[in-house]
Amino acid sequence: MTSTYVYVDFGAVRIQQYLTRTPGLRGHRAASNSLAQATADAAVKHVVGDLAEINRESGEADGVVSLRFPTGASEEREGRVRRLQDLVFAHLRRVLPGAEFHSVWGEGESYLAVYAHVLQPKAHRGEVRHDLPPTAEFPLAVPCRMCHTDPAVGIEPVLDGSLALCLDCSMRNVPRWQTVADENSPEGRLLRGIGLAPAPDGLTDLAALGSKDSGRNHLATVAVDGNAFGVFFKALANEGSRDEELRTAKAEISSALSDATRAALEVATLELPLTMEREQLCVVPHVVGGDDVLVSLPADQAWWFTLTFLEEFGRRVHEATAEVMEKLNKLRADRPGLPALEPPTASAGVVFARARHPLNLLSESAGQRLSEAKRAYGGRRASVQWLDITADGPEAPAHPPLALSVLRSEGRGQTPAAKALSGLVKVPASHRARLMEALRGGGPLTAAAIADRVGHLDAIRPFLPPFPQHDQPPAVGIGLGAALGLARWWPCA
Ligand SMILES: [Zn+2]
Q1: Which of 38, 62, 127, 372 has the fewest CB atoms within 10 Å, measured from its CB?
Q2: CA 21 / ligand 1 centre spacing (Å)
């Protein structure tokens, strides 16, 4: 008889919003760090004792705790889940007073099967147990001066004076060295992985690392998330129940995917021209989950970073899943109505704004761009959507998301679009702004007429519809409006 387990998962709700709810990078770092520490294996083991063990079948991710215990008598099961949840919630609450947590559980032979058939559907239906921050004991307490969210519990010295802080902001009010030196924090781990000087103290200092032409006051916020992992895991869980080899492959694949995320982050960070020039960390990671990443970096580095990350992640995941994918697709071919699976990829949302723009709004906008990118390609291709808040305002962008393959060809060769963008970047910025105005006012032909007059028609021609079939898309796959937007932060070759 095969043994079955009860799996109990814990996670933070809207974690990116929570981490970035205070104004300064110092507070975000402290919260990221506390979260990583609180959810580290050793801390969780200490809390749960003999009640459960760490679930090694799931991949590693910040802010996520996965536990399991052998299924025993049914009357005892729910009580044990409840006790576990009480313990873990209390522990997380102590460390992260202002966060919201949830927990979901289910039982079965393997984590992936339980995840695909029980945990994910339950979470989707909202059948989870929530743990919310306690409401104020004294309703008349002054609000916290840092987050303006929770009531203050005391007055504390901060960098410049003293402030009334809530419990959560008090946790965030620690010196920088305490958080960056920690090897569990996303930033500490990245530093340890690639060995560079630490990133600057604040977001304005980070923006100041950009090139002279960038104005040195703009940052990009990049949110990345894997595509179609749910579909893949579900297929794996279904076929795994009939195939021994697939069953054993499952646990390895989970950790191979979180490894691919970390490796892609390291490679994309190391390969930035700015990193090489300064030998300093120029990317500040806020969240690094299983296949889920949120970072800030100087605006003029964002396209390098994003395209390299997506390509590197796709390549590594492809390698790690190739064998299993082939086997799965052979099995699926025998079953009518099941389409062949594509290897999972990742998509990105990129938002450009001034360094002083609140990070919580940027992280929310980057998340929305990420959803647009995923939706546009049904999660079946690596894709990207972006927004430049300074140039275009905070509303959803007018241009459609792009597939990664339009901007980057395999093996880092230039695509026709990337080549054309390198040409467009050479047109002076003031002139590109005029072309954008002409495009918005009169359409592509008006813009083309102006470009022709000043001798830049060749630079914009690849982004114009072919003449005379004006309703056809441009040959390089990007329209002029999107190209002018991309060119603002496109790296000069
Ligand atoms: Zn606060």
Answers
A1: 127
A2: 8
Across the range 20-34, mean pLDDT stands at: 88
pLDDT band at 158; cut points 50, 70, 90: confident
Average pLDDT value over all residues in the chain: 90
**pLDDT of 212 higher than 60:** yes
Q: How many CB atoms lie within 10 A of CB 263?
A: 15
Please check whether residues 85 and 199 belong to one and the same domain: no
- Measure Cα distances from 394 to 146, 161, 181 in Å: 24, 33, 35
Q: Answer with the one of 110, 131, 152 that is the final residue of a domain.
A: 131
CATH of the domain at 24: 3.30.70
Centre of ligand 1 to C-alpha 118, Å, is 36
Count structural domains, the chain: 3
Centre of ligand 1 to C-alpha 144, Å, is 5
Give the Å distances, CA to CA, from 85 to 67, 88, 128, 138, 423. 10, 5, 11, 27, 57
What pLDDT was estimated at residue 412?
64
71 C-alpha to ligand 1 centroid (Å): 41
Sheet architecture: strand order including 284-288 = 284-288, 292-298, 218-226, 346-354, 383-388, 402-403
Find the domain containing 99 and state its range: 5-131
